[in-house]
Fold this protein.
Amino acid sequence: MSRNNKKNFTSPILRTIRCHLHSSDDVLRKVWEEMTQKNTPLIVQLLKDVSEQPEFENIKETGEISKAEITELRKSLTKDSYLKEQSGRLRSSADSFVKEVYSLWLTLYQKRKRQKEGKEYFLKDILKSDVELVAESNCDLQTIRYKAQEILAQPEEILKQIITGSENNKQTNSNRKVRRTKNPKTSNIDKDLNIVTQETPKDERPKALTNILYDIHKKSQDILIRCAAAYLIKNHNKVSEEKEDIKKLKKRRNQKKVEIKRLEKQIQDNRLPSGRDIVGTTYIEAFDNLINQVPKDNEEYENWIADISKKVSQLPYPVDYLYNDLSWYKNSENKIFVYFNGWSEYHFQIYCDKRQLHFFERFLEDYETFKKSDKGEAKLSGSLVTLRSAQLLWQQGKGKGEPWKIHKLALHCTYDARLWTAEGTEEVRKEKTDKAQKLVSKAEKNENLDKTQQTNLNKNKSSLSRLDNSLTRPSKIVYRGQPNIIVGISFHPVELATAAIVDINTQKVIAYRTIKQLLGDDYRTHI
C-alpha cells in the first residue's frame, strides 16, 4: 500500500497470512456440520429473502442496503427454527456476508442503469443533426459554431456563470438571506466543476472537458448554449467546418440503440444472488424440469440450462471473526492453539511453516498482554492489537471419504503492518487518540445529551484512557517513500530482465542491475 503522501500516511497497511488448523476428526466433523448445515443454509436463505422483500425495489433505486435491514430479516428466520442455536458471531458473519454480496450486486446494477440513462440522454438530447440543432436554436449553423468556439475557449468560466445565475435566481425567488463563511458565488460552484488544469493528465483532459460540456448542456437555460454544447459533444469536443454526413449520424444512432438494448437486457437478465448450492438441490430441480416438464418460454428454458451448467460448490461459506473473537494459548509442548467465540469447546493447533510462525507468536503475545491488562489498572486499547480480523474457511481437497477429512480447515489472519513496530504503533495510537479526543470535546460542548450520546461519550472517554497505554514492540524506523523514485523492469530474451532505478524529477538513472548482479552467487542455482 502506498504511503507516499500525507493524506494516506496513516491508512491501515492490511496484510493477510494463512495457516491450517489441526484437531481431532470429531471436532472437524462438528465444525463441518455447523458450517454446512446451519451457516451456509442461513446465508442462502437470506440471499433469497432479501430480494423478495417489498422494499427491494426501493433498495435497487437507491443502490444501498444496510446491515441493520439484513439483521432484522435474519432474526425472523432464526426465531423459530434450529438456526436459533447458532452462535452470535456466525449470525453476524452471515449478515455481513449477505450485505457485501448485495452491495456488489447493487453497485453493478446502478452502474448499468447509469450507463443506460447516459446513452439514452446522448441519443435523445445530444446526437441531433445540424439541421435539428438549427431548428431548435432558431439560429443558423455558423452562429452555433461561433458559440461552440466561445465555450471551448473558456468552458469552466461559462459553467460558473450558468451555476451562479441559477443560484442567484434561487435566492431571488426564495427571498432568504443565507449566512455563508465562503463566497456565496463560489462555495457550491467548485463542487459542480470538473476543472481542466495543467495537472490534469493528458489522457483525462478530453473526458474532463466532455463532463463540463454535459454540465453546461444540462444546467443552462439558454437554448443557443445548449445547442452549442450538444454540437461540441457530438463532434468529439471540436468545431467542424465540414458538411455533416447524415449516413454516419444514422449509423451512430443505430449503434447507440443497440448498446441501450444490450444494457436493458443485461439489467433485465441480471440474476439475483442465489448462494452456494452445496447439496445440489438447484441442479436436481433443474435436471428434473428438463426431463419431465416443458418450459413455458425460452427464458425459463435458459434458466434451467444455466442452473445445470452452474458449477456446484462443495465447500461451505467462510465465517468472519474480529480480533477479540479469537483466544490463543500454548500447550505443554509449546504448540500454539486457538479457539473461537461461540465455539469455545473446539480447539485447534496452528499448522504453519517457520517463516510464518512469528506472526502467530505475536498474535498470542498480544492476546495474553491484552487479557492481563484487563485485570490491572493500565488497560490497553484493542485498536492497538496487531491482529485485526480473521476468516475460518475450508480449502478444497482431493480424494474420497468424509468431507472433513478430505478438505482442509484453514485460518486467514489479517493484520495491520503498522502495528508490528513501536514507531508504527505510536503512529496509530496518536491517530486514534486525536480522533477520540475530537469526539469527546464535541460531545462535552452539548449540555443536553440523550442516552445514546452519553453512552458514546463514556465509550470515547474509556478509549482515551486505554490509549494512554501502549504495547511493547520492537523498534524500527518507519519507511518514508519517495514518490519521485521509481523502479522499471526491462525484459529481454538473452538478459531475461534488467531493473533500473530512476529519479523521474531529474530524469536520471540511479542504478542498473541485471538478474546476474541481483542474484550474485545464487545465479547458477536459480537460472
Q: What stands out?
A: The first strand starts at residue 14 and ends at 22. The mean pLDDT is 84.
